UniProtKB/TrEMBL annotation:
This is histidine kinase. Its EC number is 2.7.13.3. It comes from Micromonospora fulviviridis. The keyword Isomerase does not apply. Its main location: membrane. It comes from the Bacteria.
Length: 528
């Protein structure tokens, strides 16, 4: 099989099989070597003990002093050899002359091998090659009653006999090695099977490429990504996710519980709930994010939770400005329609000869519209804010709401970015218009924008039903709305601007029972 077709699990199993087999074979070889060494040592101990027993026998000492030692020693030595299971028992004179031997024709011939230490009175064992082949032998001196050496006894076991005994132990060794090899192979197979499931049968090259692509894609996409394990611990946060959530690049967040990470409250609430979310707007500091969250599963098992985030702060600001322009356009279209109706009425009155009534009708509406425009433009020189207020006035007129610009309103120059100013004023006015929509007449919204004691103050009051005191604390929280099923961001965006500029927001009751929102933004050197 080509190497590229081998999975990681397959390669690991093959490697483990080879290593385990070599270890078992090495262990078996070591066991054989130890057994052979033990067998040789046992043979040395055995032949030494037999030789010492024969040398100490009175019959042997007595036979060595007779005229025909072989006649007595040969039967005795052979009987001892058979009884002890050794291969030879040789009794000899100090000049090496044999008095006994398993091969009778060798009796009387010289003994082959070293006998020097025994002649010096020192029994010893040695491995030598003799007439029967290589053997382990012991040579022991024989003493007379006066402790003089009168002969020597050599007892030996051939190496072939020792090897035969060792081979008889091989089945036992194999019987011990085979289960060990089978157990190791089974363990390796189970481990490779588990690894195959975890790696989905992928090879190392495929795993490497997947990691490289995975890492490159996750850190280059312009969408924030946060992955949680099934036990709600952070498995991954990519670069964009760190930026959107305000996490430092070197902050250690991986493998930590999500509850132990400093996340924006709205994001923490969404992650803590574990619910699925689709294009849900959330606030993260001064950003408006769109969140998508879902639980991930593989083969029916829950793996964790994936949260993706997209930054829509600039898009929201542009949308807010677009809404203002759209509202102004719709108001102008409505006014055009109303102007056409009034023009037809004026023309008809002229045709009927009622000129005075026609002039009064035309000049009255024109004076009201011009008066509103002059008051707004004269009080607010910021063009975008002036356009917003004019548009909201027309929008309020369509809804039957009287939008009143406070006579004390004055702002020659905006100390704030235009988008922040429009966010505060536009969302407060929209919230007020929603509040008075279902209220009984007269429906009124009053707006003040101006500088007071080095502060930019925006006040928007309405004649609606008023805000429940228990809900004041939630007024600037994401998701709060004057509508029962709202997912409002308007007041939350206002609160976001307030926090960014270090200001304050207050909610109070108006004299007519409505709600008064006051935003104070400290801006030193504000134009008055």
């Amino acid at each position: 099989m080509a190497r590229r077709q081998w999975s990681i699990a397959g390669q690991l199993f093959a490697l483990q099989a080879v290593v385990v087999t070599l270890l078992v074979l090495a262990g078996a070889a070591g066991a054989v070597w130890l057994a052979r060494s033990d067998s040789q040592q046992a043979a040395k101990d055995e032949v030494l003990a037999v030789a010492q027993a024969v040398a100490g026998s009175p019959n042997v000492r007595a036979a060595l002093t007779t005229a025909d030692p072989p006649a007595t020693l040969q039967p005795y030595a052979e009987a001892t050899r058979v009884a002890t299971g050794t291969d030879f028992v040789v009794v000899m004179a100090t000049d090496r002359t044999r008095y006994s031997h398993p091969s009778p024709e060798l009796i009387g011939q010289p003994f082959i091998g070293d006998i020097g230490p025994a002649l010096s009175g020192e029994p010893f064992t040695v491995t030598n090659v003799g007439t029967l082949g290589e053997s382990v032998r012991a040579v022991v001196p024989v003493y007379d009653d006066e402790h003089r050496i009168i002969g020597l006894v050599s007892v030996g076991i051939t190496t072939r006999a020792i090897n035969r005994k060792l081979l008889a132990q091989v089945p036992v060794l194999l019987g011990a090695a085979a289960p060990a090899l089978a157990l190791a192979a089974t363990g390796s197979w189970l481990l490779s099977r588990r690894l195959r499931r975890q790696t989905h049968g992928l090879g190392p090259g495929e795993m490497t490429r997947m990691y490289e692509y995975y890492d490159a894609v996750l850190h280059s996409v312009r969408e924030g990504l946060l992955v949680l394990t099934r036990d709600r611990r952070v498995a991954l946060v990519n670069d964009e996710g760190r930026r959107l959530l305000g996490l430092a690049d070197d902050a250690a967040v991986t493998d930590r519980p999500v509850s132990g990470i400093d996340l924006p409250p709205a994001v923490a609430e969404l992650l803590g709930s574990g619910r699925d979310a689709h294009d849900e707007p959330v606030l993260a500091g001064d950003r408006v994010l769109v969140a998508n969250q879902r639980t991930t599963r593989f083969e029916g098992a829950v793996l964790g939770t994936v949260l993706t985030l997209r930054d829509q702060t600039e898009l929201r600001n542009l949308a807010s400005e677009l809404d203002s322009v759209r509202a102004l356009t719709e108001a102008l279209q409505a006014q055009t329609h109303e102007s056409a109706n009034r023009l037809h009425t004026v023309l008809t009155l002229v045709e009927l000869g009622r000129t005075n009534e026609a002039v009064r009708l035309a000049t009255r509406d024109l004076a009201l519209a011009q008066q509103l425009t002059d008051r707004v433009v004269g009080a607010v020189t910021e063009p975008a804010l002036a356009a917003l207020l004019l548009g909201k006035s027309a929008q309020a007129g369509e809804r039957g709401v009287d939008l009143v610009i406070d006579p004390d309103c004055r702002l020659d120059d905006s100390p704030l970015p235009t988008t922040d100013l429009l966010t505060v004023v536009g969302n407060l006015v929209d919230n007020a218009l929603e509040a008075v929509a279902g209220a009984p007449a007269p429906r009124r919204v009053r707006v003040f924008v101006g500088a007071v004691d080095d502060e930019l103050v925006v006040r928007v009051g309405d004649s609606g039903p008023g805000l429940d005191p228990d809900r004041v604390a939630d007024a600037f929280r994401r998701g709060w709305s004057t509508k029962s099923a709202g997912r409002g961001l308007g007041l939350a965006l206002v609160g976001q601007v307030v926090r960014r500029h270090g200001g304050a927001a207050e909610v109070a009751r108006t004299d007519d029972g409505g709600t008064l929102f006051t935003v104070r933004l400290p801006v030193p050197g504000v134009a008055r």
